[in-house]
Amino acid sequence: MRASGIVVVAFALAVAGCSGQAPRQEPGAPRLAQGTPSTETYVSSSRAPGIPKGFGDRDPHEWGARSPDDYTVHGIDASRYQGAIDWLPARRAGVRFAWLKATEGGDHLDPGYALNAPAARAAGVPVGAYHFFYFCRDAVEQAQWFIRNVPRRKGDLPPVLDMEWTPFSPTCTARPEPAKVRASIRDFSRIITQHYGTRPVVYTTPEFYEQNGLGQMRGQEFFLRAVSAHPSEHYPGERWSFWQYSGTGVVPGVAGKVDLNAFGGSLRDWQAWLASRRQG
Q: Distance of alpha carbon 269 from its chain centroid, rounded?
C-alpha cells in the first residue's frame, strides 16, 4: 500500500481534500491487453533470494534468518497504478489473495477496485477492498464513505484500513496526537464491523506504529509493512496476520511493480482464517 501512497503525491492525495466537494474519481487506469506482454519472462529476470519462486523483485536485498520465502501463502495489494490485472497467471504464480484500493478520505474513489475485483473473483482469487485514511477527515465520515462505495459481498476478504502518514500531501499533512489516531481507528473499525460483519485489518508502517502507540491496541489484527527485515525486527513482540515485504515486486499478470505480502501461518491456518474472516 505504500507503493500507491508514494505515487499518490502526484494525484490521489491531492483530490482527497477537506473542501466537502462532490465525490471525485480518478480517470480510469489504462487497460492492459490480457497476458501481453508476457510477464513470466520479466519475472524470471527479476528473481531474488528470499522471494517466492513465482515472483520477482526489482529492488532485492539480503534477508536475515527469516525471509518471505519461509511462508506458504502469498498475495498482493494494488491500486489503479497496476492497471487491469490478468488474474489467471497471477494465481498460477502463487497469488492467493489480493486487496485493492477502493476509497480514500471522504470523497475519493480509486477505479482500480471496480476494474479488478470482479476479475479476481472470477479467477478464484479471494479479494477485498482497502481504505486509505486521511487525517483531515472525520473517521466516521470516512467509514460511511467506504460503506457507500464498497458493497457487502459474501466471500470477500475483510476490509483493510491503511494507516500511515502523508508527509507529501499537497492538501493535508496533519499528524494528530496518538490518542486521537487510536480513537480514529476504533471509530472506523466499529462502524465497518457493524456493516460487514467482520473486523477490518489495520495496515501500518514501522514509523506510524511506533509514533502512535498502536501496540496498545489489544486484539487488533495487523497487516505490517517491513521491507528490509522480518516484522519481528521492526515490531518487537507484535502479533500480525499479514506482512508486506516488498513494494517493488514483480508478478505474472501485473504490469510494473506491485506490493508483495505474506500470510503469517500455514496453508491450514490460511484456510481457517478465510473461513472465519470472510464476509458472510
A: 20
- The domain 2-19+29-277 having CATH identifier 3.40.50.300: the answer here is no
Strands 242-250 and 222-225: parallel
* 3-class secondary structure, 35: coil
What's the one-letter identity of residue 275?
A: A
Let me know if 275 is exposed, middle or buried by CB neighbors in 10 A (0-12, 13-18, 19+). exposed
Contact criterion met (CB below 8 Å) for 127 and 150? no
Grid coordinates representing 142? 470516512
Q: Which of 75, 83, 79, 86 is nearest to 126 (CA)?
A: 75
- Spatial separation of the C-alpha atoms in residues 109 and 79, rounded to whole Å: 10
Residue 16: closest CA among 131, 107, 146: 107
109: closest CA among 125, 127, 129? 129
Q: Are 66 and 247 in contact (CB under 8 A)?
A: no
Q: How many Cα neighbours within 13 Å face the side chain of 153?
A: 13
Q: List the domain boundaries for the chain.
A: 2-19+29-277
DSSP track, 180-227: HHHHHHHHHHHHHHHHHSSPPEEEE-HHHHHHTTGGG-TT--EEEE-S
Question: What are the average pLDDT values for consecutive 10-residue runs of the chain, which has 280 residues?
Answer: 43 34 46 48 87 96 95 98 97 98 97 98 98 97 98 98 95 96 98 98 98 96 98 97 98 96 98 97
**CA–CA distance, 110 with 24 (Å, rounded to integer):** 9
Asked whether the beta carbons of 75 and 95 are under 8 A apart, the reply is: yes
At residue 42, the pLDDT reads 73
